[in-house]
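Chapter summary example.
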Amino acid sequence: MQVTLDGTEEKYEQIKNYVDGQKGHFYPLLDKLALLGEEGIGLSIRLNISQGNLADMVNLVALLEDRLGAYESVTFYPAFVTGIEDIIPEEERIATAKRLLKVLKNPNKMTFANKFYEQPRATSCHRHSAYAFSIDADGNVYTCEHYMGRPDQRIGDIWQGLYGPDTRGNKVELRPECQICVFLPKCGGGCDANYDEGDIACMVEKYTLPAYLEYLLE
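The structure predicted for these 218 residues follows.
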């Protein structure tokens, strides 16, 4: 299971902006996550990081360490948010990942070390997998999660099946810069959707693996 957090209570409530208009969702959520940990259910907590919430994200990792760090099945996954104005620049991402890593008593909780041993990706993500797709809350089917909520990009829906151009099984065309990159076996070419939008296409391993190595050396 994956659950996304964007900061501690105030930042989380501001970003999530629950439809009931009420506050006070944050700590009950942490209590529920602790229940998953107690039952040994695999839980990856995705940490959405931008320049606007970075300082608060450090506080969040410290809070999660205190409340959930003892559960072996709970890990933390840093994710640099794209498609926004206050994106973390590439040149700051390694230092940012290392800053979060230093908060934890057990660095393996940040899902850095296991990335060294994962098999190379045949494709960058499920956008190019013929066996995967995304479905939005209205039942529309998409090739990619980045298109969720944009009906003009749908390839079908759950009632009628697929009726639009289905490019999921298409061969990945690697960009020249990707073909000479040491991280290619890990990322499979990066995020096409981000690249198409003029955003950073590289996967998080490009920053978290060097951060973890620097952490070990220090």
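To summarize the output: The chain is about 35% helix and 10% strand.
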